[in-house]
Amino acid sequence: MTLPSILKTSLSIAILSSACFAVPVQAQEIIKIASQSDDLPSQFVASASFAEFAPKAQSSNARLDYEIWDEALQNVVLDLGPSTRQRASRPQTQVGTRMVKGHKSAYRLEGTRVTFAYINDEYKAGLIAYRKDLEWVASNNDLTTLSRDEQLAFWYNLHNVTLIEQIALNYPVDNPDRIKIKIDGKKYKMDEAKIITIRDRKLSLKDIREKIVYPNWPDPNVIYGFYRGNIGSPGLPRSAFRGDNLDYLLGRSADEFVNSLRGFNSTTRNRYVSKIYDEAKRFYFKNWEPDLQAHLLTHANESVRSEIMTDKPLKIDSYDINIGDLSGGRRLASSGLASSGDLSMSAETARLLAEVRRKQDFLRRNDMVKRNTGFVIIEDLVPEDKKGQ
After folding, report:
1. Is residue 119 part of a domain?
2. Whole-prediction pTM
3. pLDDT per position as a tens digit, 203-260
4. How far is CA 103 from each of CA 137, 139, 174, 354, rounded to the nearest angstrom?
5. Would you say residue 38 lies in a domain?
6. How many angstroms separate the CA atoms of 127 and 275, rounded?
7. Total tally of structural domains belonging to the chain
8. Does residue 104 lie in a domain region?
9. Does 151 reside within a domain?
10. H/E stretch holding 112
11. 343 and 365 in contact (C-beta within 8 Å)?
12. 272 touches 315 (CB < 8 A)
């Protein structure tokens, strides 16, 4: 699948339009009836200030339909495949300079990438509209009566839509943590800015994770559903979260992350884990090292298991804060999306994609993946420095 076939201007309107939510949600069949049911374990409750979002005993079998977001993700998310457990070497400098532009992180060939440089103004407007649609759904329907899986899927999608929206609005940026959002004359970090509104309640991305989800869902696998927008993050699935695919997507993301270098790695002296585990420590790993090790071992492959089970000191790794895009936060020379023909591609993007192709060849030669895995390979883009040749 090539990039021109998956990034189309029409997606900005057709996929991310708010029209489908313009009337009560039931009338538009956004909520559909499902057959499963489950109840809330009574021992898990949110903090008092966020108790209104705590799951109740299920009284509705309805489910939310995220077809719009599902299609949108498939058109902007690139899956780079499983880790080779080898650090990427530093790229060669460009001719006539000692500088290396674009991604140079040792973890740059892991996880997923969002094609932020190809998102135009119409697409950004669509992201804003879709986030508002999700806010409307939660404000006009009591989601706490749905199954716990349906509720969790909603929080993931709202969190990730909002994050991608804010990065797209502030792009180009090489580090999402540097994004500041101005509210009532004061600037806040993107993660802490209360930019989401549900029933007049203001929420931040951090609130969703640490005030609503982590206190109410006891399985540590839930940490892998939250995308952070940087290379160090768990991957962003190319499908929307739904109640019926939640376990699969979380398990797949957990497996990829634990077996990647950005999730766990070791040296001759120490073992290192991602800081996302430290962030979730008070919720899932109170007995830090034994609890975390037990969790990692549930997802680790044989070679990684042997690294985890050593008695080396366990430390928090340096987190890769670089933007999870293709070019290292560099905008295209010709902006926007294309529905056909060649699409401009920076030299930095071309270099990264060439590295990804070599990585995928390595994975296949070593039987680490099956052929036709669904990796998105960009074939027919023209690097800016090759145009006109």
Report:
1. yes
2. 0.83
3. 999 999 999 999 999 999 999 999 999 999 999 999 999 999 999 999 999 999 999 9
4. 38, 40, 9, 13
5. yes
6. 29
7. 1
8. yes
9. yes
10. strand 112-114
11. no
12. yes
